[in-house]
Amino acid sequence: MQPIALKPSVDPHYTAMYAAIEGEQFPIKAADLKRVDPQYYRREVAYPTRERPGTIVVDTRNRYLYLVQENGQALRYGIGVGKAGLEFEGVGRVQYKRQWPRWTPTQDMIAREPERYGPLAAGMEPGVLNPLGPRALYLFKDGRDTLYRIHGTTEDWTIGKAVSSGCIRLLNQDIVDLYRRVPDGTRVVVLQDGPREGFMPEAV
Fold it and tell me: What SUPFAM superfamilies is this protein classified in (predicted)?
């Protein structure tokens, strides 16, 4: 008789970090951490960079988002990326933020999958099924909407992966945490080829 393989338990620190969030307009359930590689859990890391504290750096290749802190540190969040998330590189600003945002598929998404997205062309109301999740940051460059969003997700398993469509997605608990830390106007640097410093920041 073969022994039963037990799933590894999740560190209670992260279980608490990704627990259900109460008091929201819509329920935010606990993240399913057993479907997320632990390297993508939120943590503080060493991150020497020329960017000023408060800057968001998105490393799409390695599937991380960094919020630069003082003293060569950063908060690192795991992300999922999609085709839309690979279409922008460079520097932008968070023009505005929204709690429980509406979602409207882009014209490219509708043209690519009309049967799926056509019925949603007028937009989708906020809620637990909305693909933007509970929070979204809207990125502009030179005063123009890039159509690039940093948002939550209804699909925990996509963190650390490249999915078929969408921009940059975080676990819902992570986007709620990031949202409260960054104001409108925050500088956002999007890298497609990994960190400019040529190293992988390590957790501390």
Answer: L,D-transpeptidase catalytic domain-like
